[in-house]
Amino acid sequence: MRRAGAALALLALLSGGADAATIKLNQLGFAPAAAKLAVVPAAAATSFEVVRADGGATVLSGALGAPLRWQPSAETVRLADFSSLSTPGSYRLKVAGAPLSDAFSIGPQAYRVLNAAALRAYYLARAGSAIPASLGGPYARALGHPDDHVLVHASAASPGRPEGSVIASAKGWYDAGDYNKYVVNSGISTYTLLAAYEHFPAYFAAQKVGLPESGNGLPDILNEALWNLDWMLSMQDPADGGVYHKLTNKRFDAFVMPDRPTSGPRYVVQKSTAAALDFSAVMATAARVLAPFEHQLAGEHAGLPARMLAASEAAWKWAEAHPAVVFKNPPDISTGEYGDADLADEREWAAAELYISTGKDSYYAAMHAERTPNSVPSWGQVQGLAWISLAQHMAQLGPAADRKLIASRIDSLAATLAGQWSGSAYKVSLRQSDFIWGSNAVALNQAMMLLQAYRLDARRAYLDAAQSDLDYVLGRNAVGYAFVTGFGTRSPMHPHHRPSAADGVAAPVPGWLVGGAQAGQQDKAECKAAYPSSLPALSYLDDQCSYSTNEVAINWNAPLVYVTAALDVLTGPAK
Ligand SMILES: [Ca+2]
Ligand SMILES: [Ca+2]
User: Fold this and answer.
1) Spatial separation of the C-alpha atoms in residues 457 and 408, rounded to whole Å
2) Catalytic residue (one of 178, 237, 345, 503)
3) Which CATH number describes the domain made up of 128-170+180-357?
4) Would the pTM of this model clear 0.85, i.e. be above it?
5) Where does residue 215 fall: left (phi above 0), alpha (psi -120 to 50 degrees), or beta otherwise?
6) Where are the domains of the chain?
7) pLDDT tens track for 358-411
8) Which of 496, 497, 503, 526 is catalytic?
């Protein structure tokens, strides 16, 4: 991810988001039992109606909330709460003085189709795989980046693999808008998919995505995760357990299809402590998630769970011996860095996953749970993932684990997020300071943490706040976009994503969450189109040039997969 080399800005066809007078709501819809809110511009009206999308008959009317100021967009808005409407159907919101809202639907499994598309986006992003028309439809393409002939970069040279050695490191997902593969960002992405399965196995057993492997006895989400896990395994040096930080060209490819690379040979680059620890955490997680499928894992995957656990422990040992190898791009490499100098959280996460998967108390001790805080996960800050896994496995943990501490870490972060949600004019947990690069994923990772607490203590506010955060990315935001390609009434058409730019298909590859609004405008010099505003919640550009607000990334889609599944399950009928 990050930075296009020579981004050729398309002539900006600014289809434009909604303007300030527009009603903002989740453009897909809601489960019958979900909280249902819309943001209405504060004008003269004090009441709202919900009308049938066909015919316009009023089915509900209510009072708007008090006008409140939302600092991130400098707007004054009122909330419409139509949670009491639970009859399945298609509706619009009507407020005097504003255009009718976009249509939305109410019905069970409101996000099933979106969830499948968000997972399919990973399939369409597979390196080393052709996408046949039978599975990819208009997004069929030739195989790119086989990575069967990858060079060991000087920074990664070891006695057994001197500079220029050739290794195979096939499969994996393209990280984002670019065609490179990064272990650190793969770590949180793959974990989040594995956690989605681990927490909601019945949902994913029924989730058919349409993969080459579909029907092989594994749920599709695990088939997809395996494509990247196979690649990650090949990034470990079997001689010492260390893990290469990334597999990359020296420079970014141009905006071409993946089978037409423009940037020469590919390299594995320098082993790093972050890569080893993220790898260790993910392999420990995958080992236990895949263990029940031992009999379905055949051929190259035979015995995989045990090999993953061994790989995890070997990477952990390497990291213990090399605790502070911080990655920095060598001078001749200019692709994404994923550099991170704070490695305590990576160590805490790996220790927690190893504790859960091996039962060895030494790993729990290594986590130092009593001094490890909880936080909203991001690629560089992963301690929250440790707490998610510990909470999930609370009932099976040994006596060394402090259950009260685990529950308290989960609940206290959720309480903070719910407080932010409750006090927000848009009723979202995002604060002004959360409008950073990838703000849409911040919202969804906040939702994921809220849902962990709801799963522990069933406090309704946590579920409603998580719903609100999904609503935010699906349209209840200041620019009025459903921020997932192919979904909603207004969604991104020009993501910073090489296949979408080069495939000759007008519609972008579907199912991708774009980064979202933030005021940094780091691509301003490359963008011919002007940002509509410098306010954080309005600073978004649906233009290919905008890598800082309109790129896609595997780590951003993963919480979309998690949260849509969780809300389908948790707001659905009792099982
Ligand atoms: Ca870190
Ligand atoms: Ca296209």
Assistant:
1) 11
2) 178
3) 1.50.10.10
4) yes
5) left
6) 1-108+118-125+402-575, 128-170+180-357
7) 999 999 999 999 999 999 999 999 999 999 999 999 999 999 999 999 999 999
8) 496
